[in-house]
Structure formats: C-alpha cells, structure tokens
Amino acid sequence: MVGYKFMGKAHSHAYRDLPFYFDCDVEPVLQAVAGRDEEGVKEAAEKMGFATYETDWRRLIERDDIDLIDIVTPNNTHAEIAIAAAEAGKHILCEKPLALTLEDAQRMYNAVKKNNVVHMICHNYRFAPAIQFAKKLIQEGRLGKIYHMRATYLQDWIMDPQFPSVWRLKKEVTGSGALGDIAAHSIDMARFLVGEFEEVTGMMETFIKERPVADSSGGLSAKSASTVMEEVDVDDASAFLVRFENGAMGVFEATRFAGGNRNGNRFEINGSKGSIRWDMEQMNNLEVYFADDEDGLQGFRNITCTEEHHPFAGAYWPAGHIIGYEHTFINLMTELMKGVSEGTSPSPNFEDGIRNQEILAAIEKSVETRGWVNVKQMRLVENV
Ligand SMILES: NC(=O)c1ccc[n+]([C@@H]2O[C@H](COP(=O)([O-])OP(=O)(O)OC[C@H]3O[C@@H](n4cnc5c(N)ncnc54)[C@H](O)[C@@H]3O)[C@@H](O)[C@H]2O)c1
C-alpha cells in the first residue's frame, strides 16, 4: 500500500477483516506499506498490521514478495505509481479519481492492459448492499423505464474561510475540487444504476479564493498557524445536468459548502413503475416505491438491506444488525480478490475510471464553453 492516512486506514482495515467474513481463493496479506516519513510510516505499519515498511514507493514495486499495489495517495501521484506497478506485473487497486487528466487516465489504462494485470478503482459506495440490491431491482425491470436521477453529494468541511489550503484544494495535486473528489462518486453511482452519459452541462464556483497554508493534514482534517495565504484554484461547488444515453435526465450537485451535511451522498431514481431513494448516512436503508402497490397503501417503503437476499449482507450479521462505511471497502476488496484469483478485473475497474474521467472533463469543458458537451467527443481512444 502506498500512503497510510484516511484511505490507508480504510483499506488496510478492510484487507484485515475480509477473510473474517468471506471465503476467497486468495487472501490479502499486509506485506508492506510505503510513506515518505520514516517515523510516520513505521508507526502506521505497526498500527495497521503491515509486516514491513518502505520510505519510497518504488521499493515496493521492486519487491518480488508483493503481488498487488494499493494506491491511497493524492490524485497527482496515481498515474506514475500505477504505471510503474503495471510494468512490474503487479495487480492494482487505485483510489478515485483515477488521475488528474483524461490523458493520464488513458496512459494508466494502456499500462494495465499491456501488462495484463488485474485493476480496480475504489468507488466503494456501489458496494453498499442497498445499492447492489437497487441495481438488481433496476435490472429486473422493477422500476420500469428510468426517467430521472437526481443526486446530491453534500459536505461542509471547508466552510470556515480559515480552514487551511490542503491538497484537495490545489489543482496541480487534485485535478478538480468537489467535482473530482465527490461528484465522481455520484457519477459512478449513476453509471452503475442508470447507464452511460450522453451529454452534460455544468457550473462550478469557488466561494473562498484564498486560505492559510496548511501545517499538517490528513483526510478531511488539517491544522494551520500560518498567516501566509495560498490561492484556491479548484471548485468549492459544482452542479451539472445530464442527458443519459437511454433518455433519462440527471440533475447533480456536489458541494463542500452545504452546512450541516457531513457526508450527504444521496440520490433518487424515478422510473415508469417505481422509484428508489438512498442516503449514505443511512446506508443500510433503501426507500422503494412501486406504482402497482394497491390503492391506499401507495408510498415509499423503507427496506433495511441486511437480509440474505441483499448482496454481500449475508456475510455479516443477522437481519437488522446493521453494517457501516468500512464494509463497503471489504465488499469491494472481495471482488478484487476474486479478480486476482480468476485473472479478471471486476467493475469498477480502470475502464470505469476512464469513463468517469471523460465525464469530469466534459463537465469542466461545458463550464468553460458555457454550453452542452457530448461525453463521447472527449474520448481519446475509440475502442476502450
Ligand atoms: N473512496 C473514497 O470514498 C475516498 C475517500 C477519501 C479519499 N479518497 C481518495 O483516496 C486518495 C487519498 O486520499 P486520503 O483522504 O486518504 O488522503 P490523506 O491526505 O489522508 O492521505 C494521503 C497519504 O498519501 C501520502 N503521500 C502523499 N504524497 C505521497 C508520495 N508522493 N509518496 C508516498 N506517499 C505520499 C501521505 O503522506 C498520506 O499518507 C485520494 O485519491 C482521494 O481522492 C477516496
């Protein structure tokens, strides 16, 4: 694993817990973690259960006792690490968004294909049992023809203008702001549940244009005692409209300025025969409405997706004994282990990463041109 803070903790916890719940043909072994600060990475290795550590990620890639490289570093490092890992024949799990640019995402995809390694991107939210169950309902036609998806991803962790200038607020490290960081998850959800995007038009805003330089940061927290200010050159908030290839309409909003919303990843989908609603902060529940329910009983019902027929849920606890955020990672990594043993790259993989990146790029282009952008026109290589 390269990196060991927010996602480092989530991923290493999931690898450790996975064999406890799932029987896979291959089992993850926490062999080594890499970080640049020796004291920090040593402490992380001990706490997270890694056998060894390295202070340069290139050493991980050279080691022949390592089969899989897990990339949990800021976005500007993903391409270099993933390409080197693929060239050394290592399988890869990479955090989202795949890269800073569509060109880098394409180079990463080319490298994993050329070297025939297993690859996945960590869009973990689609692995909540309620989402997997929603997918099943949609595939079975229970919602009929899909007309609408409206998705919001609302956070509020940078609303204080004195919150420091962390890597997530610097274009050269992160690519884009709320768009690539959180709308990317809503886009993955939409592609998983509704289908491919045809065209988009968006708007982006940066409300706080400069912030104090950070002294330290990790995940969504940071400290600063500095009076030196730095420019914020990414979006604090983004919104966009979507026309899906299947004719459905999408309305999306992602912001870090929605006070009171800590991780409000939510959506509603409406079809000709029914509707569903989901809220990450109540992630075990799926609200479902079926138009053919009898008169007088019509309305949304709330299903707690913890039963045997809800995908992945049966591996955990008896019905009604809920699971949480960390289990979405365990479920994703179960697919990854299956992929490693079978030599396949389960979805979401780097191809999904490219599709997602095309949409992010199309939204940014639409903001620049103040118009609609056809997503396929962003595509760099036609047969991917
Ligand atoms: N799937 C999700 O829900 C989710 C949630 C949060 C973050 N992410 C993604 O995970 C990635 C990491 O985000 P985070 O919140 O864990 O960040 P973080 O700031 O908490 O941790 C980043 C880690 O990378 C290390 N690092 C930075 N540059 C490095 C380099 N050149 N070489 C080695 N290590 C380096 C840092 O020291 C730190 O350990 C990002 O791509 C982010 O978009 C995904």
Structure in words:
The structure is a single chain. With 384 residues, the protein is an alpha+beta fold. It has two domains: 6-124, Rossmann fold (3-Layer(aba) Sandwich), CATH 3.40.50; 129-282 and 284-323, Dihydrodipicolinate Reductase, domain 2 (2-Layer Sandwich), CATH 3.30.360. The chain contains ten helices and 18 strands. The strands form five sheets. The protein has a nine-stranded mixed beta sheet with strand order 17-16-15-14-6-13-12-7-18. Strands 3-4-5 form a three-stranded parallel beta sheet, with helices on both faces. A two-stranded parallel sheet has the order 1-2. α4 packs parallel to α5, α5 (102-114) runs antiparallel to α10 (350-369) and α8 packs across α10 (350-369). The protein is globular. The two termini are 28 Å apart. 47% of the residues are buried. Nicotinamide-adenine-dinucleotide binds at residues 2-8, 34-36, 57, 72-75, 77, 95-96, 122, 124, 181, 217-219.
Keywords:
384 residues, alpha+beta, Rossmann fold, Dihydrodipicolinate Reductase, domain 2, 10 helices, globular, binds nicotinamide-adenine-dinucleotide
In short:
The chain is of the alpha+beta class. The chain has helices at 6-21, 38-48, 57-62, 78-87, 102-114, 129-139, 171-174, 178-193, 325-342, 350-369, and strands at 32-34, 52-54, 68-71, 91-94, 119-121, 146-154, 197-205, 210-212, 216-218, 221-223, 229-231, 237-244, 249-255, 264-271, 274-279, 285-290, 301-304, 373-374. The two termini are 28 Å apart.
Round the Cα radius of gyration to an integer and report it.
21 Å
Oligomerization category of the chains in this entry: single chain
What integer is the average pLDDT? Answer: 97
The biggest beta sheet reads: 9 strands, mixed
Number of strands: 18
Name given to the CATH homologous superfamily of the largest domain: Dihydrodipicolinate Reductase, domain 2
Order of helices and strands: HEHEHEHEHEHEHHEEEEEEEEEEEHHE
- For the record, the CATH class of the largest domain is Alpha Beta
Terminus-to-terminus distance: 28 Å
CATH topology of the largest domain: Dihydrodipicolinate Reductase, domain 2
Number of H- or I-type helical stretches: 10
Question: Which class do the helix and strand fractions yield?
Answer: alpha+beta
Number of separate domains: 2
CATH A-level architecture of the largest domain: 2-Layer Sandwich
- Which regions contain 5 or more consecutive residues with pLDDT less than 50? none
Measured as a percent range, the helix fraction is 25-40%
Strand content: 15-25%
User: Order of strands in the sheet with the most strands?
Assistant: 17-16-15-14-6-13-12-7-18
What is the 3D shape? globular
Which compounds are bound in this model? Answer: nicotinamide-adenine-dinucleotide
